[in-house]
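Quick one:
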Amino acid sequence: MISTGDTGVLDQSVHFLEGRAVNPDEDSYYDMPTISNEQASLYQHCVRAIQRGLRFGVHGLPLIGSCDWNDGMDKVGAEGKGESVWLAFFLHEVLTRFMPVAELHNDAAFAARCLSEAALLRQHIEQNAWDGEWYRRAYFDDGTPLGSSANPECQIDSISQSWAVLSGAGDPARAKQAMQSVDRHLVRRDAGLVQLLDPPFSTSDLNPGYIRGYVPGVRENGGQYTHAAIWTAMAFAKLHDRKRAWEILNIINPINHGNTAAKIATYKVEPYVIAADVYAVSPHIGRGGWTWYTGSSGWMYRLIIESLLGIKLEVNRLTIEPLLPPDWPEIDISYRHREVTYHIHVEQVAVGSTPAGITINNAPQADSVIWLDVARGADVVVEIVVEKVLG
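Output:
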């Protein structure tokens, strides 16, 4: 239990849990961990977790162990040597975002280590993870690449490409080319879905793990795994490719799978919640999978609010840099900060017709920041003018 007090949450003292390590001949074990007598600040818990992740293989990429985001790839690094390209991008994101936290805690040594480890990751990614038109997904224990054009199955996996963009760790030109490869190989406009990987695992000698237990084209094995499809849309948005970002949103939007009787007969699940997956195998192409409890719903919210509408909330400040379709003339946003309600109107105008800018309660602002000030009163009116961008 975290105690309360005047210090920040990261300075609160928290006990560790104790349990034996997994033995070399075990995949897992069931036990009840105990509460350790040892305790440390929550900040130190974070530091230890990051340090635990700084374990790399022969390509300088993080060890995948029993799996990474895709828990179905539990045999890629079963011997302790396999490496994950996606995890390299994700670890880079963790390091770069934690570095200022370390600086705020006057931990200059760990802040410097975060910076140096992130730089090394970028170097190793470009040296050992680029496949020619996209980034590879992983390396097996024996060094065989996964997610390579040389593979008979799983030649391309979307999450390495999207996180090359989202993490900022990928070479900009390569990351853009990788997303073009995603669009070419994984976006199934005819079926209204975005595959996680292709071709699915089926008959080859590659054995990434229990992912092969799924029928080819179902769930993680080459179907649409919506969590990853949303990352694809977010990556296109970060590249300012509004056309494809909104197109991907429309493809995965469940409403568009159930707006006709014929579509709902194919989709078969509720068209008002996010499905964790959509099948990409005949005769069930376009059929929705697990609904209601997928974490994709939270990512869908972030895609719409942050990536497309461009709403970014930081401490005591709000910025709005929307990526709107060209045929949207305006949007209205109501945001409440404590007792103050901000009524925000964003108008999209033709280039050169009206000066872009922002006014708060009719007062022009020098920058695009909306400062969240409780002293403003109960209601604040914000007017934002942005120039329309085609494409």
